[in-house]
Amino acid sequence: MELIQASVEKCFAYSKGETVTKDGAEIKGKQRKFVETIELQVALKNYDPNRDKRFSGTFKLPTIPRPNLKMCVLGSAVHCEEAERIGVDHKSVEDLKKFNKNKKIIKKFAKKYQAFVASDSLIKQIPRLLGPGLTKAGKFPTLIAPGQDLQGNLDEVKSTIKFQMKKVMCLNVAVGNVSQSPDEVVLNIQLAANFLASLLKKSWQNIKVIYVKSTMGPSFQIFF
Question: What is the CB-side half-sphere exposure of residue 131 using CA atoms within 13 A?
């Protein structure tokens, strides 16, 4: 716990342009013109991606790690209107029909955003309108629950992290940003790491190392 706290504080200090110590050496920080994300980098061990069952799991953190996540609402008239009001990009069924199932256009559209949410009435039509494009990009929309406030839904997506085992033994996940308090980030790290351990066959024994770092800063080891 103390190691996590100290490492997070170093990430914050570095992002403010202060000098931090890593492995006995002093490194001068640099303040950037954007809000740096703080992420976990995890290396696994005793795990064979080809033989062992691949895992996938999502977890909602108590505070939003990426408030500036670029999102798009694929919505009903009501949701598009609400998206317009809160300043979020949106597309209606008619807009999606204009893509004419053109794979290049859909690929470009999927690339433009980091996440999508969709109205109940529209989500079932997405495979027909867009083919497998969003699914292939790993960005199939999250359903806007009936009666749920759109802003609440967007915030939920922004605060949800995903651990997914692919062919490599390393995982990266955003757990905070430097505009939060260090305590909020520390809590997010603890919850995210515990959740990842719960997905693994041998829990913590499958985790080799965990590092924490800000977007432009050095990495600090918090699990050995």
Answer: 14
Residue type at 222? I
Query: For the residues 24-33, what does the mean pLDDT come to?
Result: 91
Question: For residues 11 and 209, what is the distance between their CA atoms, to the nearest angstrom?
Answer: 18
Give Cβ neighbours of residue 187 (< 8 Å, ≥ 6 apart).
Answer: 62, 63
Cα distance between residue 63 and residue 158, in whole Å: 9
Helix (H) or strand (E) holding 171: strand 170-177
The 3-state DSSP class for residue 74 equals strand
Mapping DSSP to helix (H, G, I), strand (E, B) and coil, where does residue 209 land? strand
- Indicate the pairing of strand 207-214 with strand 219-223: antiparallel
| In the predicted structure, residue 45 carries a pLDDT above the cut 80 | yes
Global pTM? 0.83
Pairing of strands 115-118, 71-74: parallel
pLDDT digits (tens, 9 = 90+) for 59-83: 999 999 999 999 999 999 999 999 9
| Residue pair 133/106 in contact by the 8 Å Cβ criterion | yes
Helix, strand, or coil here: 68?
coil
Q: Average pLDDT in the 12-27 region?
A: 90
| CA angle in degrees (0–180, nearest 5) for 193-32-70 | 60
